[in-house]
Amino acid sequence: MLVPFSRRILPVTAALLIPQFTLVATSITSPYTTGIFGDMAWRSHGANNEDLVNTLARNGVVNSGRVKNAMLRVDRGDFVLDRSDAYYDSPQPIGHAATISAPHMHAHILELLEGHLKPGARALDVGSGSGYLLAVMAEMVKPGGKVFGIEHIPELVEFSIKNLRKHNGALLEDGTIHVQVADGFNGLPEQAPFNAIHVGAAAPEIPQALIDQLAPGGRLVIPVGKYMQELLQVDKLADGTVRKTPLMGVMYVPLTSREQQEKSARVREAAMGMT
Fold first, then answer.
1. Fewest Cβ atoms nearer than 10 Å: which of 72, 97, 164, 257?
2. Hey, what CATH topology would domain 14-22+91-271 get?
3. Mean pLDDT, range 196-219, rounded to an integer
4. Rounded Cα distance, 163 and 167, in Å
5. How many CA atoms lie within 13 A of 243 on its CB side?
6. What is the pLDDT of residues 135-190, one digit of tens each?
7. Rounded to an integer, what distance in angstroms lies between the CA atom of residue 178 and that of residue 135?
8. Among all residues, which ones are annotated catalytic?
9. What average pLDDT does this structure show over 210-229?
10. What backbone phi and psi angles, to 5 degrees, belong to 224?
11. What gap in Å lies between CA 42 and CA 266, rounded to an integer?
12. Which residues, listed in sequence order, are joined to residue 180 by a DSSP beta bridge?
């Protein structure tokens, strides 16, 4: 059963949209009322995966038929710790101081990358977490494409593989999806170049390694900043020129080292009386 929004407390490290000119100090336990989607994104809840995706489409968050169909083929409920909250349009904790982003945020990222996630394309998801976005991307790049996920927490890699095997195991078995432990700042140079790169955590600045690993014509979407974060779109043109476009204010977990993330998780657990 869905809990009324007023009773929900979102993780402060959640990936969510922030109005471009609203202070981050504004409470994030309430929906925002301005910004790229107006106040509709946070209302895009569903009773099940199909209902969630249809609501995102009805609210104008999902516009591409390819994005909608791919999201319909991947059940978000397979990629969360608490399935009862899977179809609520908010971020959810997945352990180790990490979250799965709100559905409207995933939908927006997929819309931004849609033209670069064509059949046969190669994509990289940095901070692939529970594996949800890997599965949706894989649905978009098949047949012939490959999606690589990297995480620096081995337990999250194992968690994502377990989740993928529930209903999307064929994408692992045929090599469309590959997940491994790696440092997000370094990307995955041995598998580059990539047509699309998504980073699911905020870096202090754009890692040059990720720009280098973009194919000509490729696109990188990454949150950048420490306190006031901004979602950036980075396009590498055919001649190798790089064009950076600021999109909106966001709030993401930081792109950090494994040691720092595990320390943050321990501090949070202690504060919540879990240790």
1. 257
2. Rossmann fold (3.40.50)
3. 97
4. 8
5. 11
6. 999 999 999 999 999 999 999 999 999 999 999 999 999 999 999 999 999 999 99
7. 10
8. 101
9. 96
10. -130, 135
11. 30
12. 150
Whole-number Cα distances in Å, 114 to 43, 96, 250: 23, 30, 20
Q: Which two tokens stand for residue 63?
A: 């516009």
Residue listed under structure tokens 């657990």: 269
| pTM for the whole structure | 0.83
- Report which of 226, 261, 222 is spatially closest to residue 98, judged by C-alpha positions: 261
| Nearest C-alpha neighbor of 176 from the set 70, 103, 104, 100 | 70
Euclidean distance between CA atoms 222 and 230, whole angstroms: 8
Give 43-51's long-range contacts (Cβ < 8 A, gap of 24+): 43/89, 44/89, 44/103, 44/104, 45/2, 45/87, 45/88, 45/89, 46/87, 47/2, 47/87, 48/77, 48/87, 49/74, 49/75, 49/76, 49/77, 49/86, 49/87, 51/87
* First CA to last CA distance, the chain: 29
Angle between helices 103-113 and 49-58 (to 10 degrees): 60
pLDDT in tens, 178-188: 999 999 999 99
Residue type, 179: V
Q: Is the pLDDT of residue 88 over 80?
A: yes
Q: Which helix (H) or strand (E) holds 134?
A: helix 132-141
Per-domain boundaries in the chain: 14-22+91-271
